């Protein structure tokens, strides 16, 4: 029989489609918001940092509450919080008020995560990996659509707030739909409810630990990679349009489109990388290769800024920086520490949240003197991630017994 939670999952993915737009909407409207709030690009970057703070302060609490009270209330609340964030930004009279609403946006993100990821895993217990990674595809879809909306707004000289209201309308309708949708019982396994769902077959033999992992070597490396992998793609999503406009001399509408190319690259990577790591390549190698490619592209952008390179760079950086390095690093870290996956996830995403808070602050300061140097900073962050990944690869071969890969 058909899985009765498919309509529910569509609502869950729709929230993440809007989240994809919400993650870049402040950066896409940077000039308009700077005028509204009587500030500059650095001030808007400060507001964006509030998203990271909001996500960080409720990261652990929301997950525990979701386990206790169920998934639906947190999916619904997350949508309402997001609406509050979007409308609040539009009515903010100054930087301080906008920052408070940005914190609410970060809280919305963590609230959605707390309800959505467990709900998807419980709805599709035989395909949890696929169900979870599709959220990344939904985010990429939103990041592709918003720049197109912005281009239409710019071309028609319409009110920039329509981009916010577009998101609000989707979230409001989706929140009403969520209230009517069935959710699995979060206190019992749902596997027996889905007898006909296709089973994901793991074609790769798993490595076995020969010795205990050393937290002070690979553990610290993973924590820092949680920061660098997030910082690399987050910085691009905020500053690539501004770099394209002010350094590569693109028009405002054309520079906004670089994030559409970024989203296409992300979506392409999610599909291709998920296939590669399923049957061909171990995630630990992707965690090294992708940041290397990101660093090369960022150095090229810094040295030879041009409209064509900005478009190509958007796609390549979407593919290499935002296409799953963060998730694959977490997967690899869980291999090193199989007995404490919950604690590992908490530590890793705390580091990731610190990046979403600190990167806008740091780059906002740099933007006062040079937008180009922001891209250079990102290149060095990607290099650091690559070096740390090399350490992890060396440790991986030392402490694991790695069986031959079966290809399919």
UniProtKB/TrEMBL annotation:
> Per the UniProt record, which residue ranges are transmembrane?
12-30, 42-62, 74-91, 97-121, 133-154, 160-179, 215-239, 259-277, 284-305, 311-332, 344-366, 372-396
Compartments, record wording:
Endomembrane system
Can you give the residue ranges of the Major facilitator superfamily (MFS) profile domain?
Answer: 8-397
Tell me a Gene Ontology molecular-function term this record carries.
transmembrane transporter activity
The membrane-topology field of this record reads: Multi-pass membrane protein
Could you tell me which InterPro entries the record lists for this protein?
Answer: MFS, MFS_dom, MFS_trans_sf, MFS_Transporter, Sugar_transporter_CS
Main location, first listed in the record: membrane
One annotated Gene Ontology cellular component of this protein: endomembrane system
Keyword vocabulary terms for this entry? Membrane, Transmembrane, Transmembrane helix, Transport
Homology family:
Belongs to the major facilitator superfamily.
Name the UniProt record assigns to this protein? MFS transporter
Recorded source organism is Gilliamella apicola
